Amino acid sequence: MKNHLLKQYIQGRSCEILGLGVSNLPLARLLTEWGISLTVRDKKSPAELGEEALSLQTKGVSFVSGDGCFDAPKGELIFRSPGIRPDLAGLTAARENGAELTSEIELFLQLTRAETFAITGSDGKTTSTTLTGKFLSAEAVRSGVGQVFVGGNIGTPLLDRLGEIGEADRAVMELSSFQLMTVKKAPAYAAITNVSPNHMDWHNNSMEEYVRAKQNIIGKNTRRLVTNADCPITASIAAELLERKRQGKVDLPAIYLFSSTRASFGELFPNGAGKEDRAIYEKNGTILLSDGRTEEPLLSVSDIRIPGRHNVENYMTAMALVYGRVHPSVFSAVAREFYGVEHRLEWIRTLDGVDYYNSSIDSSPTRTAAALSALRGRDIVIICGGYDKKLSFEPLAEALCRSVRAVVLTGATAEAIRSALLSHPDYTAGKPEVRVVADFEEAVRAARSLARSGGCVLLSPACASFDAFRNFAERGNTFRRIVENFEN
């Protein structure tokens, strides 16, 4: 189908793409196919970017490379990659001169005719997004109506597919704080799983900016907000919206609060709620939804195949987001068949009685703490360390002291984590045992040598991957390859 909505929006304007990454490459191909005047700005040269970039160059796309490539964009419509801050001096000047700054996902939200569902948060957003997509896809199959498209930060661009996504379809997106910084039109159904310090290096050590970006998922057109009653920051966001409701403000979303520690509507909404607000919680092994008068069972926890309390919360998030849009039977049908997402407590193999888990996605101390909680009671050897995002490792040290027998540290943050661990009041000499290994493969081999039959080796770095890998997926795939190549 012709992508006429997008073409109509862009036609006649010169375009620039800042950063030729996963989200922008399909867009670059499409604009080139349409004959749109296009300049790509990227710190890497076309040769460094690879065959796709060289092919675009032969088709007339201009490239500006090097350290100053973002200093003076001249296009009328500028597409920003998520990792590029929107307040760079060159972008500020371009906007002052009349240019429109947008992004692949931002323009998709603005133009799509589909019903939109989006998830953000510090932890759990990929699993929650995946589950949301699976629930809606199961409903589409059951009802025979529409299709479901899943993308955004989860790795699949959607803008180049705008023309094939109609009013009967649903679009499900994982959105990062980077993407949300400049979003103008929010999704109809929004979820914030939780908020804890993350990406402080990118957000200039400003927790306020980070929280504000997450809140940008809520807008005038948002019909429902799902969020976490157990997280102080998200609970505060919900409380502010509830207070505005009490003051008679209009155009506010229904609030769906979930909790894995409380078990009644009154506990989640102690100051009352609106008639459209709902609570989601667990009682006697069943996840329930309540309007304050009745409780509706949604899913038996025993049907969930992926381990950990945090995954129960991920199910709560996704079910709350799609509640009323799918038949209730899809919840248990999906849960019984879903064994998790790659790089998220992904079981690799059992060797010599030791289970190997790849949780490379765990790029913050809170994610690693959640992974350890899911494996509570096991004899754990953990591999941590990586790129420094300027986060405190004190929470990680506490979790390591409480949950693991041995720690193998590697990467740029190895010494910082070691220092935090050894200085923590819960640490005693040798408990846990600590090894620092510079090479990643040797770190995995060291973890194997420390593991005991009946226990497990867990890759849960608590850090980003950029010191040694392109992304967390490459790190996780490397771990998988090393473990799969171990001989008995």
Structure description:
With 488 residues, this protein is an alpha/beta fold. The protein folds into three domains: 12-102, NAD(P)-binding Rossmann-like Domain (Rossmann fold, 3-Layer(aba) Sandwich), CATH 3.40.50.720; 106-335, Mur-like, catalytic domain (UDP-N-acetylmuramoyl-L-alanine:D-glutamate ligase), CATH 3.40.1190; 346-484, Mur ligase, C-terminal domain (Protein-Tyrosine Phosphatase, Chain A, Alpha-Beta Complex), CATH 3.90.190. The chain is built from 18 helices and 20 strands. The chain has helices spanning 4-10, 25-33, 46-49, 51-58, 89-96, 104-111, 125-143, 177-180, 207-215, 232-246, 265-268, 309-322, 329-335, 365-374, 394-403, 414-422, 440-450, 472-484; strands spanning 15-18, 38-42, 62-65, 77-80, 100-102, 115-120, 148-152, 170-174, 189-192, 224-228, 254-258, 278-283, 286-290, 295-300, 346-351, 354-358, 380-384, 406-409, 433-436, 456-459. The strands form three sheets. It has a nine-stranded mixed β-sheet with strand order 7-8-6-9-10-11-12-13-14, sandwiched between helices. The chain has a six-stranded mixed β-sheet with strand order 15-16-20-17-18-19, sandwiched between helices. Strands 3-2-1-4-5 form a five-stranded parallel β-sheet, sandwiched between helices. α7 packs across α12, α14 (365-374) packs parallel to α15 and α15 (394-403) packs across α16. The longest helix has 19 residues, at 125-143. The mean pLDDT is 93.
